[in-house]
Design goal:
It contains ten helices and no strands. By secondary structure, it is mainly α.
Length: about 375
């Protein structure tokens, strides 16, 4: 019975749960390590993303017989130039649109209040159930308005604190990038050096597969998000939507979140469109629909291919679970983390199958 897969799997799950339970009992011992991990998480993440984006350029330069240090220096110059160019081109427009949005916010709130007043003045024309829903919503808003105001102020203060803290930590990102570009070939041999024989070969193959999975996802997802942002910008400019660049950039950033991103991106665009001109909301919905259809049917299949090969239902389940566990970072990192776990399990299953086949041939 001990050789059965279900028995070994059950024992493995029980041991994992026991280890997690023991960690929870002595979690105070690991608090310093947790603080260190939280401190380096963001710069390490950004450095890793930049590493996968710039590594092809590094390999191209080295193929042209450029030394490693000169290639890394050139890569850093290119990265800095790209960020500066993006800032120089986009920052003035974003600043202007953000200032205009802040200036017009009171007017937009007044327009929203007019819609609410209109709804209230005609609520007697609504069905009884709709009337009850409207009155219940008004009561909830009135009762919770002060709490929401205090909560928003607290959230804003926390956001600003985290923002400036993250801005400070971003200084560490280039250092992580430099060392990743310099020593990335040494990682797999270093880890595999703790093993011998076939295990060393399996470790190196698994690490290579993990590298391919992360590279395909990061490079593909960022390129897809950029193309979606461009399509949204073109569409918003065609219909002359206010704050087009700001909304397109928001759509590009939210598209990093699989499945949920498009729905998050369309909310502020629909709100702006409704206040600008009600029928424009329909145009925004059409633009978002067309952009997502092009992305899902043409761009992603050609850019991403089958890098992760995850079923849409699995994507939804993983994102919702990760969001409840780790918040926004869980939502963003859920799919690549799932891809990493899937790659490891696939290699474990393949290795186990090879062992069982080899054992069967010896018996024969």
């Amino acid at each position: 019975m001990t050789n059965k897969l279900w028995f070994q799997t059950g024992i493995g799950i029980l041991l994992a749960m026991l280890i997690i339970f023991m960690f929870q009992q002595i979690h105070d011992v690991f608090n310093p390590l947790i603080i260190i991990a939280k401190t380096i998480f963001l710069p390490l993440l950004i450095g890793g993303v930049l590493f996968y984006l710039t590594r092809p350029l590094l390999h191209f330069l080295e193929a042209k017989k450029l030394p490693r240090w000169a290639s890394i220096t050139f890569v850093l110059v290119v990265v800095a130039a790209v960020f500066w160019l993006i800032y120089a081109m986009i920052a003035p427009v974003i600043g202007e649109q953000a200032g205009s949005l802040a200036k017009n916010t009171p007017q937009m709130i007044d327009e929203g209040e007019k819609w609410v007043d209109y709804l209230l003045s005609h609520r007697d024309d609504l069905p009884p159930q709709a009337q009850e829903s409207v009155e219940s919503a008004i009561t909830n808003v009135s009762n919770n308005l002060n709490d929401w105001t205090v909560g928003f102020g607290s959230w804003l203060l926390t956001f600003l604190q985290n923002f400036f803290q993250a801005l400070f930590l971003l200084i560490l990102a280039p250092f992580f990038l430099v060392y990743m570009l310099k020593d990335h070939e040494k990682f797999a041999p270093f880890v595999a050096g703790f093993f011998n024989g076939e295990r060393r070969t399996w470790i190196r193959k698994t690490l290579h597969d993990l590298d391919v999975t992360l590279r395909s996802y990061i490079q593909g997802q960022l390129l897809v998000s950029f193309l979606v942002g461009v399509m949204l910008l073109i569409g918003y400019l065609i219909i002359d939507l206010n704050y087009a660049l700001l909304l397109a950039l928001f759509g590009m950033m939210t598209n990093v979140i699989p499945f949920l991103g498009p729905y998050l991106a369309v909310v502020p665009a629909m709100f702006i469109a409704l206040l600008q001109e009600p029928q424009m909301a329909l145009y925004v919905a059409i633009i978002m629909l067309v952009a997502q259809q092009i992305e899902s049917n043409f761009i992603s299949p050609n850019v991403m291919g089958k890098a992760l090969d995850v079923h849409p239902l699995t994507v939804i389940t993983v994102i919702l679970a990760a969001g409840n566990i780790a918040g926004i970072w869980g939502v963003i990192l859920a799919i690549p983390f799932y891809g990493v776990v899937k790659t490891i399990l696939s290699n474990l299953y393949q290795k186990r199958t090879e062992i069982r086949e080899a054992a069967g041939k010896e018996i024969d």
